[in-house]
Amino acid sequence: MLLIPAIDLKDGQCVRLRQGRMDDSTVFSSDPVAMAAHWQDQGARRLHIVDLDGAFAGVPRNGSLIREMVAVMGDVPVQVGGGIRSEAIIEAYLDAGVQGLILGTKAVNEPDFLQAMALAYPSKILLGLDARSGVVATEGWDKETGIQALDFVRDLIELPLAGIVYTDIDRDGMMQGLNIASTLALARAAQLPVIASGGVTELADLQALKEAFAEDTELLMGAITGRAIYEGTLDVAAGQALLDA
């Protein structure tokens, strides 16, 4: 299980949002490349990058910056989401060394596209599933689809996906802990490894997640953390050590 630092890009800066609201952002660094190197130095074994501008625009907006971040991470795998809505974009990111491509809006709106990309790039595609009160949201969390997250993932069991990045929007950036029950339910429904996101605040949250998945360890790839590691309520090295224990 991995503790995965998150770097969200907005206007070329490293920011964190609250509940996905672009008008409620905090800038933590004006040098995302240096921030990526920092998390590598802290022992991160995977990095999560979101192109927030791309998520709202529908096409990548920070591609060249992400390429620099991937380069500085060396052998540490990087997963990227935000505005990935064509095969050409997937290929460009893979060529840049990105290890995991997160498909969100396009995957929900066009499940056939998700299936085709998963088959074309096995173990490289992650489904980015973002939910508010269990209902899937798209377009940078701006649009509610009316689709229940559990219903959506039950059709994915046969696909060679790398996993699912599952975010509870209500908890994202709020420092209130993970929605562990819904994360476990989703992992069991999909029978795919899940990366939990939204609300990781302290070591106790990781311990609770680890305990909840004790009988389903193969279904937990890890947890993404953002605001907590920037504000200092969680240490990357300590968090990873807990998950490794």
Strand content: 25-35%
Distance between the termini: 10 Å
Question: What's the rounded overall pLDDT mean?
Answer: 93
For this structure, what is the CATH homologous superfamily? Aldolase class I
Order of helices and strands: EEEHEHHEHEHHEEEHEHEHEHH
Placed side by side, the strands forming the largest sheet appear as 1-4-5-6-7-10-11-12
CATH architecture: Alpha-Beta Barrel
- The total beta strand count reads 12
Helix count, DSSP H or I runs of 4 or more residues: 11
Shape: globular
Low-pLDDT runs: none
Number of separate domains: 1
Please compute the radius of gyration using only Cα atoms. 16 Å
**Largest beta sheet, briefly?**
8 strands, parallel, barrel
Structure description:
Helices cover 37% and strands 29% of the residues. It has helices spanning 32-41, 52-57, 63-73, 87-95, 105-109, 111-120, 149-153, 180-190, 203-212, 227-231, 236-244, and strands spanning 2-10, 13-18, 21-29, 47-51, 78-81, 100-103, 125-132, 135-138, 143-148, 163-168, 194-197, 220-225. It has an eight-stranded parallel barrel, surrounded by six helices. It is globular and about 40 Å long. The chain starts with a strand and ends with a helix.
Short description:
With 245 residues, the chain is an alpha/beta fold. It has helices at residues 32-41, 52-57, 63-73, 87-95, 105-109, 111-120, 149-153, 180-190, 203-212, 227-231, 236-244; strands spanning 2-10, 13-18, 21-29, 47-51, 78-81, 100-103, 125-132, 135-138, 143-148, 163-168, 194-197, 220-225.
